Amino acid sequence: MAPVVRELQRRAPQFQSVVCVTGQHREMLDQIMQSFHLKADFDLNVMQHAQSPAQVAARVLAELPPILEQVKPDMILVQGDTTTTCAAGLAAFLGRVPVGHVEAGLRTGDLEQPFPEEMNRRVTTVVSTLHFAPTQDAIAALLKEGVPRDRVILAGNTVIDALLQSVRADYEFEDPRLAQLPREGKILLVTTHRRESIGEPMRHVCEAILRLKQAHPELTVVIPTHRNPAVREIVLGMLQNQPGIILVDPLPYLDFVHMMARSDIILTDSGGVQEEAPSLKRPVLVIREVTERPEGVAAGVAKLLGTDPKRIFDAVHLLLTDANAYRAMVGSVNPYGDGHAARYIADAIEKWHQQSRRRSV
């Protein structure tokens, strides 16, 4: 959302943007806010240790309405498919505040995968007035569900805006392990954290990584390890102190995007990374059973593997040993946007606001 906030700020006084954060992933949030020179006007600070998605939603529904009553916004923007997005959209709807949904229309068609994100984005669609879709496939999903075409805007994804605004050639990592990554040999970046990955699927991913290291001793594996204790128990338990495998805490945004740029191959269950990696010309291998971002698979910039260790090994091994296979994945155009999504979103909000004022006269 940072590029959208910055675009709205750039258009002041035409727009007055008010930033409200929930406080989820506090350390990571603060780092991102600092990276983009943003300041929160309101901080709900709803996060508590080991709370459930239902508890997060309940706290957002309790804390956000008084802020909406105080600010009286013309529109509230929510992004993505988190519990915060769904709860904030519902709170706005109940307060008669129009909702603009950034990254609208992503679907797997399976409410269980990913859980609860698929439900979150479907509910957010129902309560939204404007739908900022990243791709044509997302538009098609929204139209199939009955969303009026004049309420859907093809914007691309704002994560591409943020990425292209952030990556630079002279960036230096503070962590000496990353600053001293070898120039010889390949680097595999791995991220795994989703709820449906925890347990046997994540163990299978770790098994594949160990086998890859045996077959390719020159390969360096970097794994930013999520703070979820269930994730850390598996990843650290299986991969800690293994030669050539670097386990780090979750990286600040700038470190992470530059780590993607420094890598040769990316193995992930993240949604956003599936969109970011192609802009950096990096193959992205998706360790999930289904993806709400099929455009990358169709374009050839991503492959959907699941978590079978043999499939993971074979896919990474192919990219490490077959230059033609590697070039085929990095040579296609990124289907997720051109880096100007924030401008398209601001333009659409301005147009909607002008039309709303004419209708009210």
Q: How would you characterize the overall build of this protein?
A:
Strands 9-8-7-10-11-12 form a six-stranded parallel sheet, sandwiched between helices. The chain has a four-stranded parallel sheet with strand order 3-4-5-6, with helices on both faces. It has helices spanning about 1-10, 25-35, 55-70, 85-95, 115-125, 135-145, 160-165, 175-180, 200-215, 230-240, 255-260, 270-280, 295-300, 310-320, 325-330, 340-360, and strands at about 20, 40-45, 75-80, 100, 130-135, 150-155, 185-190, 220-225, 245-250, 265-270, 285, 300-305. It is globular, with a radius of gyration of 21 Å. By secondary structure, the chain is α/β, with parallel strands linked by helices. It folds into two domains: about 1-155 and about 340-360, Glycogen Phosphorylase B (Rossmann fold); about 175-330, Rossmann fold (3-Layer(aba) Sandwich), CATH 3.40.50. About 50% of the residues lie in helices and about 10% in strands. The chain is built from 16 helices and twelve strands. The chain starts with a helix and ends with a helix. Helix 1 packs across helix 16, helix 4 (about 85-95) packs parallel to helix 5 and helix 9 runs parallel beside helix 10. The longest helix has 20 residues, at about 340-360.
Topology:
Elements: H1 2-10, E1 20-21, H2 26-35, E2 42-43, H3 53-71, E3 76-79, H4 83-94, E4 99-102, H5 117-127, E5 130-133, H6 136-144, E6 152-154, H7 158-166, H8 176-179, E7 187-191, H9 200-215, E8 220-224, H10 229-239, E9 245-248, H11 253-262, E10 265-268, H12 271-279, E11 284-286, H13 294-299, E12 302-304, H14 309-321, H15 323-330, H16 341-360
Parallel strand pairs: 1-2, 3-4, 4-5, 5-6, 7-8, 7-10, 8-9, 10-11, 11-12
Helix pairs in contact: 1-16, 3-4, 4-5, 7-12, 9-10, 9-14, 14-15
